[in-house]
């Protein structure tokens, strides 16, 4: 049986390689993106060091829903997501460890005319990318879910989509990377890049300096802060999502499903992961004002889905962006693992929504709940970009909330980019410059 394990800074350190003096590439951050990049760099024979300030998969990479989906993605992401799905299909066999991956389908349920129209509009994208997505009537949904009553107007369904177990998938892929020679060290924050006359020569970590000609920031919710210390404006904010898991219950749907009010997916431990589909909260911090103009289009579209809070986070992060001396403790060490408390009101709402829409889970006990910090960009699409004024420094960010499934594919793409291999994919939509070239921000949100 797979056991869900939410990590925090008190969890045992399990990745403790010796700090090398020199490598080809340093990867900052050991979430699904950073570990995937390191794994594919290792496959290409590169000497790689992964520095993690806290724990491998300690933040959103072990706290996400576990969906491996093509459905609902922006068209610009789909080519890489299709590659990622192909990788997921063979990854467990390749590394010799079960990742909990199962292809059981993804279902987007419509309760209203507006949601029904969104789903139907997305079918054009599915056809463009030759996906197996199809439209289901309310009666077909009822049959698929085995429900006696009809709760849904319609749905779209992608049978080839899948799910995996985040808490085991990322650490097991990390161990596979180690077997390729990748060095991984927890409790090893990168305090700063080592840049002399605009030339990257390595990184300063809390354990010492490491020489490297290439560095990748895959720092998740910390990406903007790290970039800012090097005069790179990377617009990014965090929202908090709450998730619960149920006790093992009788199976009624093996895949992933989401409506406007509830999301659920089958787990390999026999329970279901539950969340409110689009509900989250944002604690106002200094960056909220710094990047407000760029986030206004998104705020206007999603203001009903995000609750704003003013708490200690604002005062805690004052001064975070001041440049730090690499010989002193950094903000990254003061907060090893972002482990926010789950929102009790959201847990209560989940229970109510299960009663009205998913009675099969209405009486299933919540045996665990947690929250995670999801980083997002103004257009809700990733940033995959090399810094203009620091050659060899790459940033991969803004994938949280939709990064787990695409992680292996994105890791392979970024590894090829770093190694100078011919690009099969168009990454122009993900360049950081799109937020600074004066062009209007085009939202990448989809169903």
Offer a quick outline of the entry:
It is built from 13 helices and 21 strands.
Describe this structure in words.
With 447 residues, the chain is of the alpha/beta class. It has a single domain (25-105, 160-435), classed as 3-Layer(bba) Sandwich (FAD/NAD(P)-binding domain), CATH 3.50.50. Helix content is 29%, strand content 22%. It has helices at 32-43, 60-63, 78-95, 113-128, 138-145, 166-179, 223-228, 286-290, 292-302, 312-316, 331-334, 344-357, 407-418, and strands at 25-28, 48-51, 67-68, 106-110, 134-137, 154-158, 162-163, 183-185, 190-196, 199-205, 208-211, 214-217, 237-246, 256-258, 263-266, 272-275, 280-283, 306-309, 366-376, 383-386, 393-397. An eight-stranded mixed beta sheet has the order 5-6-4-14-15-16-13-19, with helices on both faces. β10 and β11 (208-211) form a beta hairpin. The longest helix is centred in the first third of the chain and has 18 residues, at 78-95.
What tags apply to this protein structure?
447 residues, 8-stranded mixed beta sheet, 13 helices, FAD/NAD(P)-binding domain, alpha/beta, 6-stranded mixed beta sheet
CATH architecture: 3-Layer(bba) Sandwich
- Give me the number of helical elements: 13
For the CA atoms, what is the radius of gyration? Answer: 21 Å
The main pleated sheet reads as: 8 strands, mixed
SSE map:
Blueprint: E1 25-28, H1 32-43, E2 48-51, H2 60-63, E3 67-68, H3 78-95, E4 106-110, H4 113-128, E5 134-137, H5 138-145, E6 154-158, E7 162-163, H6 166-179, E8 183-185, E9 190-196, E10 199-205, E11 208-211, E12 214-217, H7 223-228, E13 237-246, E14 256-258, E15 263-266, E16 272-275, E17 280-283, H8 286-290, H9 292-302, E18 306-309, H10 312-316, H11 331-334, H12 344-357, E19 366-376, E20 383-386, E21 393-397, H13 407-418
Parallel strand pairs: 1-2, 1-12, 2-8, 4-14, 12-21, 17-18
Antiparallel strand pairs: 3-7, 4-6, 5-6, 9-10, 10-11, 13-16, 13-19, 14-15, 15-16, 20-21
Helix pairs in contact: 1-6, 1-13, 3-13
């Amino acid at each position: 049986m797979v056991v869900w394990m939410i990590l925090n800074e008190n969890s045992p350190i399990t990745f403790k390689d010796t700090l090398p003096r020199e490598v080809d590439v340093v990867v900052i951050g050991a979430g699904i993106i950073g570990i995937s990049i390191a794994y594919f760099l290792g496959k290409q024979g590169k000497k790689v060091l992964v520095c993690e300030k806290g724990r491998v998969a300690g933040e959103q990479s072990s706290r996400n829903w576990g969906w491996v989906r093509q459905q609902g993605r922006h068209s610009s992401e789909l080519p890489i997501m299709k590659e990622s799905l192909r990788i997921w299909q063979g990854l467990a066999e390749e590394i010799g460890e079960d990742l909990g991956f199962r292809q059981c389908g993804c279902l987007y349920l419509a309760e209203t005319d507006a949601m029904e129209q969104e789903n139907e509009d997305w079918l054009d994208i599915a056809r463009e990318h030759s996906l197996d997505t199809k439209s289901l009537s309310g009666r077909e949904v009822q049959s698929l879910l085995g429900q006696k009553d009809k709760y849904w107007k319609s749905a779209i369904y992608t049978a080839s989509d899948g799910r995996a177990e985040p808490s085991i998938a990322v650490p097991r892929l990390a161990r596979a990377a180690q077997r390729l020679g990748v060095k991984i060290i927890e409790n090893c924050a990168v305090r700063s890049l080592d840049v002399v006359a605009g030339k990257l020569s390595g990184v300063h970590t809390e354990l010492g300096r490491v020489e490297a000609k290439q560095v990748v920031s895959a720092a998740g919710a910390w990406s903007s802060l790290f970039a800012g210390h090097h005069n790179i404006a990377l617009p990014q904010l965090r929202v908090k999502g709450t998730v619960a898991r149920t006790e093992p219950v009788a199976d009624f749907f093996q895949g992933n499903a989401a409506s406007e009010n509830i999301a659920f997916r089958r787990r390999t431990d026999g329970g279901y992961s539950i969340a409110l589909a689009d509900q989250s909260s944002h604690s106002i911090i200094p960056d909220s004002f710094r990047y407000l103009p760029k986030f206004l289009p998104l705020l206007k579209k999603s203001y009903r889905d995000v609750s704003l809070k003013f708490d200690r986070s604002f005062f805690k992060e004052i001064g975070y962006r001041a440049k730090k001396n690499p010989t002193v403790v950094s903000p990254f060490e003061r907060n090893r693992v972002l482990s926010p408390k789950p929102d009790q009101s959201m847990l209560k709402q989940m229970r109510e929504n299960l009663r009205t829409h998913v009675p099969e889970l209405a009486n299933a006990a919540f045996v665990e709940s947690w929250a995670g910090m999801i980083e997002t960009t103004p257009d809700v699409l990733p940033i995959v970009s090399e810094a203009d004024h620091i050659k060899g420094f790459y940033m991969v960010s803004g994938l949280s909330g939709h990064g787990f499934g695409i992680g292996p594919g994105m890791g392979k793409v970024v590894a090829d980019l770093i190694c100078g291999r011919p690009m099969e994919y168009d990454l122009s939509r993900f360049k950081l410059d799109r937020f600074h070239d004066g062009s209007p921000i085009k939202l990448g949100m989809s169903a």
